[in-house]
User: What shape does this take?
Amino acid sequence: MTLLDQVLSKPLPKHVAIVMDGNGRWAKARGLPRTAGHRAGAEVAEWIIRFAAERLNLGYLTLFAFSAENWSRPRDEVAFLMDLLEEFIREKRDEFVDAGIRLHVAGDVDALPEPLGDVVRRVVDETAGGKELQLTVAINYGGRQDLVAAARRLAAEVRAGSFDLEEIGEDAIAARLQTAGVPDPDLVIRTSGEMRLSNFLLWQSAYAEFDFVNTLWPDFTPATLLHSIAEYQRRNRRFGGLEEDGT
Assistant: This one.
């Protein structure tokens, strides 16, 4: 039995989220510019999206592409990343539609430069009917910023009298996050050996399982993903409860 068969024989995570890390180190180790690492990383992202949709029939996949803090990187690198993201989303539009992949973007889209912002809005709209895989790409995203924005929306609604202060709870907050309507991730994977969230899906990952893999993102493969899912399947998720024997 192959690893894929083993993974498919057990319950899959409904939602996998990945922090794609290590592009720069991958390029440096090969004497290449960081931009080469980012382009190699985009090719891997394409591979993983296709594998998740066609072979795993995964329901939700989230990829952390550009954080709200990444604007502090060198201007030329940021400009390259914006162009690369625009190219990726634009060129994948037809494939997404054909494969039933609906694109969602988490992050402040209005702050993105053009033409990226326009392409994002257009492809999100044109793939809205996809029913196979929801692909969320986090661009200009920060978990703390997401929570602050949700709190501001709730405060404005309470002030306007359209929401009762006493009704504020977890569901009300979750409904105002940029991932509203998306189930919380069951499995969060971070590549490159780093063991931190880096402001990614802070609220949503409260009960996620984590797998920190040493593989740099451009070296990530479907087999790497399958090993992470197999590790997830070995764990017992209790969500704060106890085992049947009380332990």
Q: What stands out?
A: The mean pLDDT is 96. The longest helix spans residues 75-99. The chain has eight helices and six strands. The two ends are 33 Å apart (CA to CA).
